[in-house]
Amino acid sequence: MVASEAGSALSMKATLLLLKQVDRLAGRLAASLLPRPVPRETNAPPKSILVIRPGGIGDAVLLAPALRALHKSYPGVSIDILAERRNAGAFALCPGLRSVSRYDVPAEFLSVLRSRYDIVIDTEQWHRLSAVVARIVRAGIKIGFATNERRRLFTHPMPYEQDDYETDSFMRLLTPLGISGAGKVGGSFLAVPARDAESVDQLLGGLKGRRYVALFPGASIAERRWGAERFASLAALLMQRGIGVVVVGGESERADGRAVEAVGGLSLCGRTGLAATAAVIGRSALLVSGDSGILHIAVGLGIPTVSLFGPGRAKKWAPRNGCHTVINKELPCSPCTTFGYTPKCPENARCMADITEHEVENAVLEKISHV
Questions:
Q1: Exposure string (b/e) for 38-47, b if CB count within 10 Å is 16 or more?
Q2: Is the pLDDT of residue 130 over 80?
Q3: Angle at 280 between CA 279 and CA 281, to 5 degrees
């Protein structure tokens, strides 16, 4: 990682730590002091809904089936999203939204606060500040997860379980509206914008029209990374069998991409935005990834995956159905992540290190033989 990339990553980490501290202090205080909302029920179908979704790309992607369910249940409803800079791009893959605002862009955040909605749905799982925003926004119905003091700020607080698939958790937030669908999500639920789909051929170069496997070596925390050397070794094994390999990712995955390029693969790391990355994945035969937001994009596009799990909760985040293979050593200490927090590992993430290149290669070959 070059110095500028390292600085950017450290800046993001510092910002997230600061936000957690603010949430723990100011968020808890506000959640305890604000008066409970008074529900204003109506039999008329809603005309406007605000959905709050802070956090990373994965949560935003897995929210898409719930957004589709809202559109299906209320044709013509206007849905606005309040996200943040790091995940707002994921909503470009969700058709039919009226607007996407970012709460860490003051002008956009204030515009949302000045608006009025029939319903506000806070999809954050634990932190309190988004629930405070939901309480402040003018809306007759306020729905959110009842995981701590935040439950006071909703007209309809809903339960949240650590072992439920996250898409099912988001669908549960719609039950006060008479919409059900937990456990029934299947098929593709994302769409790549046409302009990004058209750009893929030029990006792929000599791989245009050939079968290839996409690799995403990144992760939000170091403990979830499998490692550049292992991804490069896997790429070499696949190319020996005549299978093309493309590495996708951002600036922070450039070093991983160079390792794969050194054995003959193609790296697009740092060369594509999120929607174009989705377009590359959408043309692939399969994606190999750790527990990441990019993994969920492949699932949403209907692309088979081989995913590598260790610290993360596979029951909550691992893809479902026969299109996907999950490799998980299921060590006694795994999973260790709760509400997004992963403690420092005393064994250097052995749950990930114990996954071998040949194990992943065999899973890939078995999966693409049916594609």
A1: eeeeeeeebe
A2: yes
A3: 90
Average pLDDT of every residue of the chain: 89
The answer to whether 246 and 212 are in contact (CB under 8 A) is yes
Write down the residue that tokens 């006071």 correspond to: 152
Residue-level pLDDT at 8: 41
CB count, 10 Å around CB of 2? 10
Query: In 3D, which of 105, 164, 162, 156 has the Cα closest to residue 135?
Result: 156
Q: Residue 360 has which token pair?
A: 């992943």
Residue 2 confidence (pLDDT) above 70: no
CA angle 30, 35, 36 (to 5 degrees): 110
- Residue 88 DSSP label: G
End-to-end Cα spacing for the chain: 35
**How far is Cα 45 from Cα 56, in angstroms, rounded to an integer?**
31
Which of the pair, 212 or 44, is modelled with greater confidence?
212
H-run or E-run covering 201: helix 200-204
CA distance 128 to 25: 10
CB-based contacts of 306, cutoff 8 Å, min separation 6 = 286, 287, 288, 289, 324, 325, 327, 360, 363, 364, 367
Distance CA 274, CA 256 (A): 18
Q: How many CB atoms lie within 10 A of CB 329?
A: 15
Percent over 90 (pLDDT), the chain: 69
* Token pair listed for 95: 């058709």
Per-residue pLDDT, 185? 63
Q: What is the pTM of this model?
A: 0.90
3-state secondary structure of 370: coil
Please report the pLDDT score of residue 7 as a whole number.
40
CB 314 within 8 A of CB 333: no
- Look up residue 261 and give its amino acid: E
Distance CA 123, CA 182 (A): 15
